[in-house]
Amino acid sequence: xDKSFSDASSALHDLFDGATLLAGGFGLCGNPENCxxxxxxxxxxxxxxxSNNCGVDDKGLGILLAAGQVKKMxxxxxxxxxxxxxxxxxxxxxxxxxxxGTLAExxxxxxxxxxxxxxxTGYGTLRAEGRETRVFDGRPCxxxxxxxxxxxxxxxxxxxxxxxxxxxxxxxxxxxxxAAAGKITVAEVEELVEVGALAPDEIHTPGxxxxxxxxxxxxxxxxxxxxxxxxxxxxxxxxxxxxxPPARLGEGKR
Length: 254
What we know:
This protein is of the alpha/beta class and 254 residues long. Helices cover 19% and strands 25% of the residues.
């Protein structure tokens, strides 16, 4: 079945106000940039977005937040976004903070059809208030419910027309879990290939989890805080010059 669409706008044609949207990415790495821009242009509002974080002020999901399109965020880290902070303090944004590992497992459970699970993470904290608790092997645990979304937007390196996806290194992050937990998963890829071009061992998300796919364009791939090592500093390893090349293996005393 060919699941390919021409662009993000056509792939998200039925995204509705008030939807629960799962968004892949970790910080700004592996973000579905085309989908985020298309949602901004559509003006879809009152979204509940589940993502590890909410980007920064003017990049990633922060674009939707700044446009007033987000009603609630379910995240594990929100420290890089001043707009997020302001909206929350003004009472204009609902926030559910969830431990990162718990968030990942709630999404995995949603994709696997597991309604809930118990974890020791968060027991004895505000996270456990109002939740069922039990003791397993002498360790108290709190019950967490699975997360599923009306839509999921993910970004992969390569994908074929059946929706099989191959992520590149750390850009994989939350994308596979989001893809599995969405009722309608929209995948954007840097390279859309024909069926059979991906070796089975290269496929991280099977096409059964993906309903729509398109080839993205104009990727910026921004970095939150770019740090580089100064070059040619005296005394650093990078500036040391060897007086003579090192001996090859087997040379030296005989």
